[in-house]
Amino acid sequence: MGLSQASQTFPTKTWKKTFYTLWLGSFITGLGFSMTMPFMPLYMETLGHYSTAQLSFYSGLAFSATYLAQAIVSPYWGSLADRKGRKLMCLRASGVMTFTLFITGFAHHVWTIILLRFIQGSFSGYVNNSVAFIAGETPNNHSGTVLAEMQTASVSGNLLGPIFGGAIAGIWGYRVPFWLTGILMGICFILTLVGATEEHFKPVAKQKMESFNSIFKTIPHKGLIATMFMTTLFIQSSLMSISPIISLLVKQLMHNQGPISFVSGIVAAAPGFGTLLAARRMGHTMDKIGPLKVLTVGLMAEVLLFIPMFLVTSPWSLAGLRFLIGIGDAALMPAAQTVLTLVVPRKAFGRVFSYNQSFQAAGGVFGPMIGSGVAGLFNYQTVFLATALMLGVNFILVIFARHHQPQKQA
User: Can you tell me where the transmembrane regions are (predicted)?
Assistant: First the structure.
């Protein structure tokens, strides 16, 4: 099986209804996540007296805890998804997140937040599971477009969340966005329960399930799949490296004066504007010229954009560069996911995407810890140079993988 995109005869009405439902669910998940996460350091700052290094460390740990848990448990959830279905995984994620996020709003110590984040990570993964869900329901000749559209769901939520969250936190405090997010995830659970249909899933009994190793041996282009796993790790690391400290950097750039929460929200949301504008075009481009070419160009552009961030002196120049980063983001994760969709047999989607989620979760661990570590040792802006280096390594890996694929697949 190569990177072919042969048409399939799937009932249009059914898979499109499921797509719209999962799109809305992913939007709500992205909205809820971004209403709280950019302001996590500022929330934690209200729970005690911490130095800059301590606050950077606790923030990085809080961000990483969720992804560490995901990296550990994702293979188990992936195996269960291949036996029980992807819809159940989406319900599991949205259901648990409803409670963990709501309870976080009552925390009175940073370690309570870190523990709740770890529990959340053990059961979360709505967006990733929704991608595997719709990938199994979508005809191959629509894969690039549909997965790019799925990217716009969480991105649109990430775009609006920081603005709403910043305004709400500025008026009612940092606890209220967590309570509201918990309610939103409850709505997400109900929407998925009643609106998503998994028609093309064929459950396999545990004792009859073919091992992942035996399936993997039959898949061509194993090196390409491994490269996509590593690409997912590096991309997620780059996305998360600045997340634990972005509000602290904005606070520094504003000299601790003015509407810091609101401006932090705008800076945090800036990449979403770029991704939202470019995602549809990137999806169509992937369907025409192939995801590997789009991924290569996107990585090169990201490297060139992260370097000047080292020199920012105002939150608005930072927001402008992050907007351009968002355009590049529209080409990255969807392209890697599209490659996997096209080379992996459907019976292994759950497990392959779960392993991919483990690598994404690992990136969610390494990114914040690298960002907070570099910020603690040097300064906030140095994080951008470290991120550019990570993406440069990723660019080299993808170039190497392309050169070892047949030309028609590159």
Answer: 20-43, 55-78, 99-119, 176-196, 224-246, 258-279, 291-311, 323-345, 383-401
